[in-house]
Amino acid sequence: MNFTEEDLQNIRTAQDTGGDIWNNELLVDLKARIKRFYRTNGSEVCCYCRRDFQDEFNMVIDIEHILPKSKYEEYMFEMGNLNISCKRCNMPIKGEKDDFVVDKALIRTDYSVPQHYYFIHPNFDTYSNNLDHFRLVVNEAKITKYIAKTNKGRYTYDYFKLSKLEVDSLNQAQGIPSSENDSVISDQATAAIKESLEILLSQL
Ligand SMILES: [Zn+2]
């Protein structure tokens, strides 16, 4: 996505105005286009946990600054530093942190080098080369499993606490913690799913 001359002018004006540059009202339209770009470019998933925005959960999608804008103002409007993420990965987990940067001086010489990031960069790395994300749909239940293939994959898995999503999806699939209703799938089906998953994983 290319910025128009008007976009660039609006960015300059917002920067000159100072304060909360990102939320300057001159940039509302530009931000809407950035979000649309990342929602239609590739699949509509969180750039860190890969959960699907369309059918997994209804929530507000955030424009994510991979290098946080509070610490790396120069990359606030760089498309390579932007993507879309879910609130879970964006706020409580990542927030304003930059501990995933390998060398905080080196990163400023060229932020687009994937080796400068411990985790899978949403734009400069290929997610599936580092981490596989399995989704199995059984009736109304969804089961999620991640398999790390590289150090970056493992780092991403730990950093974004993806094991928690696996547990959550398995619990949901087994009807936990829904207290009143019976499980979406039976114990028998759960056992069959686990068996299929193990066979699948053993073949990778
Ligand atoms: Zn996420």
TrEMBL record:
Superkingdom, taxonomy of origin: Bacteria
Protein name: HNH endonuclease
Organism: Sphingobacterium faecale
Upper taxonomic lineage: Bacteria, Pseudomonadati, Bacteroidota, Sphingobacteriia, Sphingobacteriales
